[in-house]
Design a protein that fits this description.
Elements lengths: L2 E8 L2 E8 L5 E4 L5 E4 L4 E5 L7 E12 L8 E5 L2 E5 L3 E6 L5 E8 L2 E6 L5 E7 L3 E6 L4 E6 L20 H10 L1
Parallel strand pairs: 6-7
Antiparallel strand pairs: 1-2, 2-5, 3-4, 4-6, 5-6, 6-9, 7-8, 8-11, 9-10, 10-13, 11-12, 13-14
Length: 178
């Protein structure tokens, strides 16, 4: 595993940013005890200490999250246009900049997918339950949800790629990241 950490200070809050190289999967333990696995060529930015009403992180690329339960402080993954909010759960988010969609797959618990609405207020566009896969299309801002009962959307964290009836161009794209 390879990772590099940079510290930035903004309004007296120190931030860590961890980058996963093109040839590694990086595991991070966050200040609250949550575990995150970053897929190849991904990054996660998070405060050195979680403060305020939520635990906010920023994901670029793909991450698998096992979140420490805290009902008073939701965990929020900022992934481009979307926010994925959870209290304590296991889920995967794929939000690569070059893709025209953002995918969230839920393994355990409950997550809400939110989009910024009027007045910069977060609006819930989907509430997921275990085995749900939500696909948000960036081009038309539509979200579709389906049930997936296998581990293909998060098996990468264990060093496996699983394909089930996927179009060849998707297979090639995923293999290209490896």
């Amino acid at each position: 595993y390879y990772s590099s950490v940079s510290i930035q200070t903004t309004t007296n809050i120190a931030y860590n940013e961890v980058f996963s190289s093109v040839d590694a999967i990086t595991k991070i333990i966050l200040p609250d005890g949550s575990n995150v696995w970053l897929n190849h060529s991904s990054s996660l930015r998070f405060p050195a200490t979680f403060q305020g009403k939520s635990r906010d992180v920023e994901l670029k690329g793909e991450g698998y999250f096992e979140i420490a339960h805290n009902p008073d402080m939701p965990f929020v993954v900022n992934a481009g246009e979307l926010k994925i909010a959870a209290l304590g759960t296991k889920f995967n988010v794929m939000a690569y900049a070059g893709e025209n969609h953002i995918e969230t797959s839920l393994i355990e618990g409950v997550v809400e997918i939110q989009k910024t609405g009027e007045g910069k207020k977060a609006v819930t566009i989907s509430k997921m339950k275990p085995n749900d896969l939500a696909i948000y299309n960036k081009e038309n801002s539509k979200i579709t949800t389906k049930t997936v009962k296998d581990e293909r959307y998060f098996s990468w964290k264990d060093g496996k790629l699983i394909f089930t009836a996927e179009p060849m161009e998707e297979v090639v794209k995923k293999l290209g990241r490896w």
